[in-house]
Amino acid sequence: MVWKKQQLLAFTSVDDCRVSPFRTDGITYGTPTFIWSVVVGDAVFVRAYSGTRSSWYQAALAQRAGRLHLADRDHDVAFSPISDQMNDLVDEAYREKYNHSRYLAAMISDRARQATLMVTPFPAET
After folding, report:
1. Which residues of 40-66 are buried (b: 16+ CB within 10 A; e: fewer)?
2. Residue 124 has pLDDT above 60, yes or no
3. What percent of the chain lies above the pLDDT cut of 90?
4. Could you tell me if 60 and 77 are in contact, meaning their C-beta atoms sit under 8 angstroms apart?
5. 70, 4 contact by CB (below 8 A)
6. Domains of the chain, CATH where assigned
């Protein structure tokens, strides 16, 4: 599934993103965690500030699904890891969107890059 163009335009500028991967039961959403999100092309990407040890990242990687709150709406989503080549593009998007933040260096560090996920609508956005 892919995001609609209107959604991607909205996602590009908003900064209120929370992720809630499923818990181990595959039914219950985890506690919403505030994160940064970026759009590259027609895809949405998120990173864990704390790297691969982050509990939300580990849950998203294990369950591969959950919820993303973005642009004032909840979206049922799937999570998938990305390639190193795509990480370079995600770094650029983070630099562009969050250039004003003192946390930018941490979010484009090797630690955070290793905890990057692509987020897609699941099963479909209506």
Report:
1. beebbbbbbbebeebebbebbbebbbb
2. no
3. 90
4. no
5. no
6. 18-121 (2.30.110.10)
